[in-house]
Amino acid sequence: MTYLLKMILHKEYNIESDAVIGFVNDGTDDIMISHGWLEYQGRKIDVALANPNHGQRPGPVLILDQKFQDYGTADYSYHRERGDAGERAIQRLLELGDSQVDAMIQQKEKEHGFMVEIASSEKQIMEYLSNAQNGANYERCFNLLFGL
User: Fold this and answer.
1) Cα distance between residue 67 and residue 81, in whole Å
2) Greater confidence, 134 or 53?
3) How many CA atoms does the CB half-sphere of 7 hold within 13 Å?
4) DSSP annotation of 77
């Protein structure tokens, strides 16, 4: 969603924004979950946390740091880096010695790095959107959103 919104704003409205791949925390523990959002003039735009299908507690839709719709049960904090508390939380999980948990953490770390790399250029973002699953590429999503 972050990449799609960034490119719609850029291509269709000539509005420049930054895709940020960082972390969110729902306040229930120190776990930092990889997440992406847009920033426009230093203010957050985030439509993805409201989606209850992402496996996390739902949160509000943020438009320029304002809660536009609050569908959620969580008040997320945003972080560009995981921070010491988040790193310790990951370390505690790894110390459990559960191979499934270890594999999940490794996979999520890999995905986070991949998304950070994509966010570094609009060319990579468009390539990522062009190869979206189930044909949900930029053109199709734009047409669905705007009824074209």
Assistant:
1) 23
2) 134
3) 20
4) E
Residue 133 CA to its chain's centroid (Å): 17
- How many Å apart are CA 85 and CA 99, to the nearest integer? 22
Residues forming beta bridges with residue 61, ordered by sequence position: 69
Q: How many domains would you assign to the chain?
A: 1
> What is the residue range of 53's domain?
2-146
Distance (Å, rounded) from C-alpha 85 to C-alpha 91? 10
d(C-alpha 3, C-alpha 124), whole Å: 10
DSSP 25-51: E-SSSS--EEEEEEEETTEEEE-STT-
Distance CA(14)–CA(12), nearest Å, equals 6
**pLDDT category of residue 16 using cuts at 50, 70 and 90:** very high
Pick from 96, 111, 132: nearest CA to 33: 111
pLDDT band at 22 (very low <50, low <70, confident <90, very high): very high
Q: What is the pLDDT of residues 31-72, one digit of tens each?
A: 899 999 999 999 999 988 887 666 677 888 899 999 887 776
